[in-house]
Amino acid sequence: MLTRSAISVADLAAGAAHADLLAEGGAVVDPLLLVDLDRPFGSTAVLRRAVERAQECDRLLVGVTRAAAAPAALTEALDLTLAPADGGDRRLVAVEDPDAEARVLYGHALGNPEAAVVLGQVLRVGEQLAVHQALDAESLAYSTLLTGGGFARWLAARGDRPVPPPARAETVLVRRDGDTLHLTLNRPERRNAYGRELRDALVAALDVARLDATVAEVVLDGNGPSFCSGGDLGEFGVAADLSTAHLVRTRGGAARSVHELRDRITVRMHGACVGAGIELPAFASRIVADPGTVFRLPELGMGLIPGAGGTVSIPRRIGRWRTLYLVLSGCPLDAGQALRWGLVDEVEPVGPPAA
């Protein structure tokens, strides 16, 4: 039995999802609506109108079917569809109990409604834009959410945390072997968290390949227990100037460089790869993951959306629908499922590089 926020396809066609998004004072009302795809909806005209309404909707629309079959035009227009099997369709996410999973997603959206709505908007807009434009859109949205109540609540719950100490060694090791440039993230004591020092060193190392056409291949891996554990949480909430932070993310971050070099980059991943730890690699043309690798996008629980390029790189590999699911659920994705979805290209033993 779905929650009271479930509507039928006929309801969607009639405008049920188009009530005012904001209450008095700006609070978001029902950031996510569930659409029961198994209830009869009548004519093709109703279906056509439902598709149009879904394309115009400000809210997240999550379809739910227990039959593993739904009109393709509608699943294309929805933000995500839960089903007992996906049949290789990247607009669907296969889950054991679609009704139960729908209730979980609904609760997560209610927990951070502004971030959930912004996430849907950014994913929809981003697929229509060139990569550099989509990165700008993501970063502007991310900067907005840094001023929001959801992120403030997360910071308060986390409590004060000291700024990370300076790195004890080079944060990115660079080695050239013929026409191959080997780059190794080297802050294992912080699980190679994507903090300021590591970011700047990685961008500088990638510039070597960008400026030298004789570099035929770049191999990127990481020392320690994980390839990259995501943004360094010790640096979250310390930016004093969010406009400058936006420009640093988009012009000083690694996303553009990895995208520019994508046809020459192989990323070898292992351990827990969180947030930026998969957002940046997803730009590369080849990702090799260790069988024990686990991927996760936890940003919604912080009142944020992915901010290292994940709303741009990951949808271009697995589609905006499954990307939404990963962020909205916060669930870990194992290497086997990542391979089936196309998030990675190969699964083989990797581990940290030899010393």
From TrEMBL:
It comes from the Bacteria. Pfam families: ECH_1 (PF00378). CDD domains: crotonase-like (cd06558). InterPro entries: ClpP/crotonase-like_dom_sf, Enoyl-CoA_hydra/iso. Belongs to the enoyl-CoA hydratase/isomerase family. This is Enoyl-CoA hydratase-related protein. It comes from Streptomyces prunicolor. The lineage of its organism: Bacteria, Bacillati, Actinomycetota, Actinomycetes, Kitasatosporales.
